[in-house]
Amino acid sequence: MIYKFKNYTPVVHESSFVHPLAAVTGNVIIGKNCYVGPGAAVRGDWGQIILEDGVNVQENCTVHMFPGKSITLKESAHVGHGAIIHGANLGKNCLIGMNTVIMDDAEIGDECIIGAMSFVKAETKIPYRSLVVGNPAKVIRGITDEMIAWKTKGTQLYQKLPADCHESLREVEPLREVPENMKMQDDVYKTLRETFKK
Predict the structure, then answer these.
(1) CB of 103 closer than 8 Å to CB of 87
(2) Would you state the torsion angle of the CA atoms of residues 27, 89, 149, 39, taken in this order, to the nearest 10 degrees?
(3) 161 in a domain, yes or no?
């Protein structure tokens, strides 16, 4: 659902995919190869929200801000299921874990990983390539090249997802029986722990 609000109509690049069960409102600019999942709300009613190229905002996320603020989710930012970004700016190629809350005027540096269910307080500045966890969130160490390579591969799956959705996502009636020839999807990505298991 794309909504005009007070003469602001969202701008969505044709290569991106906004799920019909998401809500994008007002002064929102969505770049190339972005994915906005079902249940997500990207509300540019009180300020501008920019999703640069390759950003994904997954299912049940909220992106909003206080009046008069504007925020940017920079290229390849990856916002996990259920996260809330309220008036914060996200750096390039960062990962925001599931159900994380990032508050107003926080700045997440490029290539940071914020662990699931973390709470980043207002005005927190997270430096480049930091691993952050907890409530309140704290930097626990730096990010290795191997970790950022793992994150980047996961984000690339989401950058391919808009084209896949445009090509094959359709509303249908459910099947009543499992087809005999039904196969599992390919194992194309592993958890961080599986990836670096010795």
Answers:
(1) yes
(2) -50
(3) no
Task: Tell me if the bond preceding 10 is cis, omega within 30° of 0.
Answer: no
DSSP per-residue string spanning 88-145: -EE-TT-EE-TT-EE-TT-EEPTT-EE-TT-EE-TT-EE-TTEEEEETTEEEEEEPPH
Give me the domain span that covers residue 118: 2-142
Give residue-wise pLDDT tens across range 6-32.
999 999 999 999 999 999 999 999 999
Q: How confident is the model at residue 83 (pLDDT cuts 50, 70, 90)?
A: very high
Is 182 inside a domain boundary? no
147, containing H or E segment = helix 145-168
Could you tell me the CATH number of the domain that includes residue 91? Answer: 2.160.10.10
